[in-house]
Each structure stands twice: as structure tokens, then as C-alpha cells.
Design goal:
mainly alpha; Tetracycline Repressor, domain 2; Four Helix Bundle (Hemerythrin (Met), subunit A); 2 domains; 14 helices
Amino acid sequence: MNTISQWKATTLPVVANYIELTKPRILVMILLTVVMAMIVAGEAVPFAVMLHACMGTAMVAASASVMNQWLERQRDAQMLRTCRRPLPSGRIAASNAAWMGWVLLIVGAVYLWFFVNAPTMWVGLATWFLYVAVYTPLKPRSWTNTLIGAIPGALPVWMGWTAAGGELSDPQAWILLGILIAWQLPHFMAIAAMYREQYEAAGYRMVTVTDRSGWGAGLHAIVGSVMLVVLAPLAIPPTSVPHALLCFLAVLAALWMLYASVQFVRRCDSAAARKMLHVSLLQLPITMLTIIAAQWF
């Protein structure tokens, strides 16, 4: 085996484990919301600013994911869904993950301060704090953890907004935040329902654990979906040429989410939960595309 082959065999798996620790799929979704907010907040945002905002946000968000897994590593080991993650499986040492999380946070915050602006850094730090220090320890203590966790899950949209020079007093910034918060309710209720037994075995106080009837999770999903129906068209500027068409598409996607939520309440089974999850993974990109399209027109 030559040197290059040895390097690939020994180094690449380790790198892949550390990348997995950052939850790259969630990271991509976060960066898409940041870019969307920058497009809405500012006209012709320089590519360099957009790139720096994404880089800094990625580091802070990755740190939050790493620290979340570091704090939950023992509970993750008890769940089939999470036991194969790098920490509970032993592929990465807990101390290494902790160092990685703190370094990413510090470097990411400093990066945002120097290359973007102070408001974006402060929103990023608030997001990190709410996710790691509030939401994560709340999960085994109270069913309200999902409601609280929806806030840091949505705040990256404000990082994009402030990075483009937008003011948080702008109603549009709050509409975008509301959309992201509302979307998370049916999305995470679906996950909580699909893995209820595992969450319960690990000691998490999810809504689906404290209320096994399914009505509590269903109510969360329906409330979030109704909020989407109301908020999605408000994110489409009335000055855009195809305003009516884009509003129709945004409302249609939200109604699709509402329909899946109602079906979830009616059936309260894993199949309905999985369907609601799949719809949520399509509904948000559709909504973001309509909002971005409105800016182009």
C-alpha cells in the first residue's frame, strides 16, 4: 500500500467522523435560510459578504451541534436512532468533541465580528446559547423543550438578515422568524412521534412521551401549520409582479403541511408521522423559493 492509499485509509474516516459530528444536512438547511434572509433583506448583497456570513454561521451552528451531542452522548447511546453517532459509538473521544465545539464557537464568533458585523455575531451567540444551554438540558425535564428549541432553530434567519444590513425592527424579519418557528412544530412533532419509544427509554420528556394519546403533538403540528398558512403569503412583497401567483404557491404549500398535520391527528401512527415529516422537508424549500422568486421580480 502506497503513502496516498495509507493516508486515505487512516485519515479520511477520521475526517468523516468529525464532519458527521457537525450534522451537515442540518447545516445546509441553516445556510439556505441565511442566504434567503440576505436576499430578502438587502439588494445586491456582495458575494464576499454572503460567503463570510455563511462561513461564520456554519462554524457557530456546527459548534452548537457538536456541543449538543457532547452533552447528550450518554442518552444518545440508549437510542437506536442515535447510538451510531461518532460519540456514543466511540469513534470520537468526548474530550476531542468538546475541544472542537469550543474552538468552532470562538473562531466562528470572531470571524463574524471581523468579516460580517457585530449584530450578526450577537445573534449567532444567542442562537448557540439557547440551543446548547437552554434547549438541550430542557429535553429530559419538560415537554416544552420543542417550543423553546424552535427559537434557536429559527434564529439563523436573523443572522442572514443582519449580515445584509437589515434591521431587526423590520416586520419582515419577524415574519421570516415566525415562518421558521412555525415550520419546526410539525417537523419535530413528526420526529418525536416516530421515535417516541426511544425518546422515552432515554429519559426525554417529549410531548409524545408525556401525552401518549397523540393529541398534544397533533395540536402543536396544527398550530404550526396554521401559522404557516397565515405567515407565508405575508413574506411575499406586494410589489412583486407575480404577487398573486407566488402567494398562491406559498399558501398551497402551507395547506399541504396543514393537511398532513390533520391526518397525523386523525391517525396518530408512525406512518402519518413519517408522511408529515416528508411533507415538511418539501414545504420549507418551496416556501423559501417563492420568497426568493418574489425578490427577483
